[in-house]
Amino acid sequence: MASCSGCGPGYRSPLDAMKGPREEIVYLPCIYRGTDVLKPDYLATVDVDPKSPTYSQVIHRLPMPNLRDELHHSGWNACSSCFGDASKSRNRLILPSLISSRVYVVDVGTNPRAPKIHKMVEPVDLFWKCGLANPHTSHCLGSGQIMISCMGDPDGNGKGGFVLLDGETFEVIGNWEHPGEAAPFGYDFWYQPRHNVMISTEWGAPKALVNGFNLAHVKEGLYGSSLHVWDWTTHRKLQTLELGEDGAIPLEVRFLHEPSATEGYVGCALKGTVFRFYKTPKGDWAAEKVISVPSKKVEGWMLPEMPSLITDILLSLDDRFLYFSNWLHGDIRQYDISDRRKPRLVGQVFLGGSLVNDGPVRVLEDPENQPQPPPRIIQGKRIPGSPQMLQLSLDGRRLYVTTSLFSGWDKQFYPDMIREGSVMMQIDVDTVNGGLSLNEDFLVDFGKEPDGPVLAHELRYPGGDCTSDIWL
User: Fold this and answer.
1) Confidence (pLDDT) at 449
2) Phi, psi of 203, rounded to the nearest 5 degrees
């Protein structure tokens, strides 16, 4: 890599990134698919600068040209993996659509506060050139290309393959994996070139999960429970780590940010567990369960036991803290991971969820002996839904959170959020001793959007963040 000072996008190291400027705006996709509003999804720009007159307000909306896309996660055309390349700049946001399988390329460089559409990759390109559909996670590669993990084939069956886009033209190049070597299911991925490895995760078959969650589909084998280990250079699948029942539905995967690290964590939704994956002394990979949030025995809910449903996890840039959201229980947790094998709970905050003490659910038995939380009210608004997507400020002091998971599941578990819209909140983080507290001065109420209540999802900072940047 060229040795230069800040000539390419991003930062030289994760610790350099922690000293980067404070976030002033964030981008987040807003979804109308699955709601009562027949309008296109859009990309919202939100002002998060406390000194600004439009603080905690949506300052721009970029509607997509199509209906029912289900925008979901986003990534960059270039990130810190291209830091040494002065010809690259982080000026395009890659916005895959989980259901329509379209990929939008958004120009965020010309006017960061008012993005515009640069290009559209049509679903037929993914179908015909790659045999893939339902694109999820997008990462830029040090080569300048863009890689997008997919969850299915064009018929809605599970298929965990990867689409490569040209980083300049955004044309579909083809598959990253070899023919016939896609995983049975796809979802998220993270690569670590120093160890020549990529690890991918599994959600489920798109046709099973598209309209909601059915426990019978788990028993029918339509949801995943494995991590896949790939050779980064040859693109061959080396290992499948079967996590078993405790590791069912492994979603977000996060390597430690330190690029020489040989370990990371994955949040497994169904049983509320976090597994640590690591390289063994003999050079292969293994995984062990390191956190378990127990289910609660309940009445007044769809099942007699309510899992926590860990949906999003992330690591601070200094690899000291791990955060995750329990989308059914309604809390966000902060763990000190200084001892990588024994995470220690140091912060917790409840922000809605299915256990609120004035709701229909009564907890009969809780292994953690926690009282049922009161509903969370911010600036007079009762928070519908539950904390879900997380994004941490570069310095680790602010945690932003939105409440929507996926329109089909939102409608099933939190119908009030479909009616009232989701929200964006901000948590203040104690980075010395650990601890989480809600910032009562910050609320973005997506129930008040011009075209009606909307579901806001994943958060991105223009300068990169701890879930989109990978260091080489």
Assistant:
1) 98
2) -100, -85
Q: Which residue in the block uniquely carries the two structure tokens 């860990």?
A: 310
Separation CA 454–CA 366 (nearest Å): 33
SS (H, E, C) the chain: CCCCCCCCCCCCCHHHHCCCCCCCEEEEEEECCCCCCCCCCEEEEEECCCCCCCCCCEEEEEECCCCCCCECCCEECCCHHHCCCCCCCCCEEEEEECCCCCEEEEECCCCCCCCEEEEEECHHHHHHHHCCEEEEEEEECCCCCEEEEEEECCCCCECECEEEECCCCCCEEEECCCCCCCECCCCCEEEEHHHCEEEECCCECHHHHCCCCCHHHHHCCCECCEEEEEECCCCCEEEEEECCHHHCCEEEEEECCCCCCCEEEEEECCCCEEEEEEECCCCCEEEEEEEECCCEEEECCCCCEECCCEEEEEECCCCCEEEEEECCCCEEEEEECCCCCCCEEEEEEECCCCCCCCCCCEEEECCCCCCCCCCCEECCEECCCCCCCEEECCCCCEEEEECCCCHHHHHHHCHHHHHHCCEEEEEEECCCCCCEEECCCCCEEHHHCCCCCCEECCCECCCCCCCCCCCC
The total domain count for the chain is 1
**Rounded mean pLDDT, 39-55:** 98
Does any domain span residue 6?
Answer: no
Q: How confident is the model at residue 103 (pLDDT cuts 50, 70, 90)?
A: very high
Parent domain of 362: 14-456
Residue environment code for 4-16, b if the CB has 16+ CB neighbours within 10 A, otherwise e: eeeebbbbbebeb
Task: Give the whole-angstrom CA distance, residue 239 versus residue 175.
Answer: 19
Q: Identify whether 4 is part of a domain.
A: no
CATH assignment at residue 364:
2.130.10.10
Lowest mean per-residue pLDDT among 177-181, 256-260, 444-448, 466-470: 466-470
Report the percent of the chain where pLDDT is more than 70: 99
> To the nearest whole number, what is the mean pLDDT of the chain?
96
Residue 351 included in any domain: yes
Residue 468 domain flag = no
Q: How far apart are the first and last CA of the chain?
A: 9
> What is the per-residue pLDDT across 308-336, written as a single tens digit (0 to 9) for each?
999 999 999 999 999 999 999 999 999 99
Two tokens, residue 440: 């009562």
Quick check: 231 pLDDT over 60? yes
> Is 466:15 a contact under the CB 8 Å cutoff?
no
Closest CA to 224 of 198, 205, 199, 246: 205
